[in-house]
Amino acid sequence: MIRAKKSLGQNFLIDDIILKQIVNCVEIEKKNILEIGPGTGNLTKYILDKKPKKVTVIEKDNNLAKDLNLRFKQKLNIINNDILNVDETSLFKDKTLVFGNLPYNISTEILSKWIINLKDNFWFENLVLMFQKEVANRIISNYNNSNYGRLSILVNWKLKVKKVCDIKPTSFNPIPKIDSSLLIFSPRENFYKIKNPKNLEKITRIFFNNRRKMIKKPYNQIFNGDQKVLEKLKLDLNLRPQNLGFDIYYKLTEEYEKLTS
Question: Are 255 and 232 in contact (CB under 8 A)?
C-alpha cells in the first residue's frame, strides 16, 4: 500500500468529480502533456483517457515512480526526479500542457522558477495547477488588495491567470488542513521586456519589505530620489506598495535597468 510522505507534501487527489473537472479545463487530445507529481496516478488515468499525443510525468518519490511504471506500462514517459532539478524546456519539441497538484511546500518556488526562466517563446500552452487556497488568492489578487504582492506581480508579468474552482480537503487522501484552488495560466502575447527577471524580484522585494508603509523610502533607496523617474511614472510617494498596479512595477524595473546598464 502506498502511503503519502509528509516530507514531500503529498496529498493525493481522489475526488472523481474534481479529477474530471481538471481534465475538461483544456483540450488534451493529440497534445503533449507534462504532469508534475502524479502520485498514485489518479489524474494520469483521466489524462490518458483523453487520448493525448504523449504523456510525461515527473515524480520524485521512488516508490510512486515504480508503481506508476507497473500500472501504466509503456503509456508514460516517467522521470524519477525533483521538478526543481528538471529543465522542462528540453522535454518537448512542441508546446505542452502542464498539469500539477503541486506540493504545498514548494508550489510558489516551482511557479516562480518557471516564470523567471521563461523566454519570449513559451514552452507551454497552459498550466493547470493546484495550490493551497491562500497561495492561489495571492496569485490572482489585483492591486489595492491585502493579498496583492510580489507573487501576483511576478505571475501577471508574462501570464494570464484565472481560478477554476476551490477544492475541499475531503477531496484528498490524506486530508489536508486547508482548502485548495485550481488555477489555469496562459501566456500573455504582450508583456514588458525586462532584461533580467531578477531585477523585478529585487524591485518588488524592496517595495514590499514594509508593505504597510509609504513607498517614499523604497523609492529613494532604489532611485536615490530621482525626480525624472518620479515625474515620468507620475508616482505619488504617499501611496503604499499594494496601491501600485502591475504596470507600475514593470515600468519601475525598466527604469532601474536603464540606470544600471
Answer: yes
pLDDT tens, 181-202?
Answer: 999 999 998 999 999 999 999 9
Tell how strand 54-58 and strand 77-79 pair up: parallel
Measured between alpha carbons, how far is residue 160 from residues 190, 191, 222 in Å? 11, 11, 28
Report pLDDT digits (tens) over 113-140. 999 988 878 999 999 999 999 999 999 9
CATH 1.10.287.610 holds for 197-260: no
Q: Rounded to whole angstroms, how far apart are CA atoms 242 and 142?
A: 9
Sign of CA dihedral 212, 214, 218, 221: negative
Which residues of the chain form CATH 1.10.8.100?
A: 197-260
Q: Which CATH class is domain 6-187?
A: alpha beta
Short-list 19, 53, 17, CA closest to 38: 19
Task: Return d(Cα 224, Cα 212) in angstroms, integer.
Answer: 21
- Model pLDDT, residue 92: 84
